[in-house]
Every structure is written in structure tokens, then in C-alpha cells.
Design goal:
flat, about 0% strand
Length: about 100
């Protein structure tokens, strides 16, 4: 004999079904926000741990090196990903493989 479902279980089951565009947008927004909050909290905890491990002065040098590298990383990339996608979609595998070597 089947056990009757509890009221909370039925509510949860109906909530998980996508019934309207509004419900889909609200649920997706909620999960994206939760993911961002979790990522930021984890980054905060890791940063505190790294600072305690390295010390303030060494962490400052580490942060400077990362920032300096990221600054030039933007200049070096300069749209190579977009060019690679264009070459692959056009069927130019030879050109795409030569661009891929740059990465």
C-alpha cells in the first residue's frame, strides 16, 4: 500500500516543476545568486588562509605579482579566442591550429 505524501513533500515537488517563465526566472536567479555568494565566501576564506600562511609582506608581493600578470594577460589575449572561433567555424583548421598554439 502506498504511503500518503506529506504536505511539505508535495509542495516541494510542485515547486521543482517549471510551470511558468516567471518561476523559471526566479529559480534560476536564486541559484545563480547562491552560487555567487558561495564562491565569494570561499574566496574570502581562502584569502584569509593564504595571508596567514604567507604573512602580510609576502602576500603583498604575491598580490602585486598576480595583478601585474593579469594586467598583461588582458593585452596578450586581445581577442584571440574570437579569432579562433571564427577560423574554426569557417573550416580553416590549419589556421585555427596555428592560432591555438598561441594559447
Amino acid at each position: 500500500m502506498k504511503k500518503p505524501l506529506s504536505k511539505n513533500y508535495r509542495y516541494l515537488k510542485s515547486f521543482l516543476k517549471n510551470k511558468s517563465t516567471k518561476q523559471i526566472l526566479v529559480k534560476n536567479t536564486f541559484w545563480l545568486m547562491m552560487g555567487e555568494v558561495f564562491a565569494k565566501a570561499l574566496l574570502f576564506i581562502i584569502t584569509i588562509s593564504v595571508v596567514r600562511y604567507l604573512g602580510v609582506e609576502t602576500y603583498g608581493k604575491y598580490s602585486f605579482a598576480i595583478a601585474f600578470t593579469a594586467l598583461f594577460g588582458v593585452i596578450v589575449d586581445f581577442g584571440l579566442g574570437i579569432i579562433l572561433v571564427q577560423e574554426l567555424s569557417a573550416g580553416n583548421k590549419k589556421n585555427a591550429s596555428s592560432i591555438l598554439v598561441l594559447f
